[in-house]
Amino acid sequence: MTDFTGGPGFLAFVFTFALALAAVLLSRSLTKHIRKVKADERRQAEESARAAKGSDAVVGSDADATGQSGDEPGADDGDPKA
Asked: Is residue 29 situated within a structural domain?
């Protein structure tokens, strides 16, 4: 009978296990970073929506009874030609 002495061996098992472990750790890290980026984008979108809503309220509060805002040229000089 011939003894089988060939095969990948312990070193191949260790290498394969390390490669699989690295793949799992990298995928977990990637997932974590993707969630963080999505959360940051969502937060920035909410802040910009709030800022836009807040700026609309500020512009609306600047208007006087005639419907003109104070930053238009000729609004306060009383000149009907303007």
From this structure: yes
